Amino acid sequence: MSWPHDGQNYKINSMAVLIDWLTTGDNYNQWHVGDKQNDGTKSLIANKICQLIKVKGITFERSGKDVQNRIN
Fold this sequence. Notes:
The chain has 72 residues and is mainly α. The protein has one domain. It has four helices and no strands. It is globular, with a radius of gyration of 12 Å.
């Protein structure tokens, strides 16, 4: 399923959650630093974003790898 069309409406979907996370506070820097360290750090962050997507009510399952690929 398409990232912008997996939610209940156009405002709440996986892409909107991901963009909101990346643009909030120091989150982008956390992701960027995770890239310079090891893949484990980036994987942990991606899995946290997956959980956030679920918390927002999106029922389509996204994996940590899906999140990593979408950001990259």
